[in-house]
Amino acid sequence: MNIGILTSGGDGPGLNAVIRGAVRKGIRAYGYGFTGIRDGWRGLLENDTYPLHMVDVRGLSGRGGTILGTSRTHPYSQGGPERMREVMVENQIDAVIAIGGEGTLAGAARLADDEGLPVVGVPKTIDNDLDNTDYTFGFDTAQSIATESIDRLRTTAESHHRCMIVEVMGRNVGWIALQAGMASGAHAILLPEFPVTYDQIYAWVRSAWDRGRAPIVVVAEGFAPEGMDTQVSDRGLDIHGRVRLGGIADHLAPLIEEHTGIETRATVLGHLQRGGSPTAYDRVLATRLGMAAVDIVRDRQWGKMASLTGTDITRVGMAEAVDQLKLVPQHRWDEVKILLG
């Protein structure tokens, strides 16, 4: 059997570890061959592929990014499923492992369930917003980078007696903001799932200041205060027409300074959270998921993806995983609120 592997959508730490785990398991356990598909669905539509051997994946566990490249090409563009079938036949590809987030897996599920293509999935998103898996690889690295960054910003905030606002990724869910904010002892944590008023934000900042602290505010990019109709976006649209979120920290900074009298600065971490070497946790999780994906291919369970349940790797339907986002639950918000201010 020859398996094609692609990485699609936003990149994240651990992608290369998935590729390595899949290739090594497939070759050593089953004698499978592998084909690398460049830049996600684009490579499968444009026949941009190359053979993947053991030597190509050596030393990849700790390497960030993806050796295959990635893109946001839609799987139903450029001829869609029929074109994919042609490319798979031409390259003797018997199955495809699609590694990606919500959009990638939604497309992969449709290809498998509706079109009958032999596709399985591996869940990846630094936002940790995919349902039917406890964690996605890339998330632990992102929250660790955010936590370290907040720790560093705290020292300069204390030196200059300032309030610091740190904007982290999180379009619709606030897992990175929640975890990094809680880990770093932030005084205000602002999540898309739980809008709060401007007055509440000012109160949290003032409470920390009155105790002699330099206030730290951690905000997810998709947060919108109560009374604001839309999320803040000052970066226009990407080439696919998707709104580029970002700017909530810059929106809040002058308001906090005006209403509290505390000098306030904003920092946007942005793609720093996606880059660099994955943590040990993400390396291990990604490797295990890649190995499990090969087993799903072996059993011809098309439309399934490898998932994390507790500490076990399980199999779930890709369509079920993208039915709804995994939001921060109310009890986690209630838990952290007591620490704010």
From TrEMBL:
This is ATP-dependent 6-phosphofructokinase. Mg(2+) binds at residue 102. The keyword RNA-binding does not apply. It comes from Brevibacterium daeguense. The keyword Nucleotidyltransferase does not apply. Catalyzes the phosphorylation of D-fructose 6-phosphate to fructose 1,6-bisphosphate by ATP, the first committing step of glycolysis. Residues 2-296 form the Phosphofructokinase domain. Its cofactor is Mg(2+).
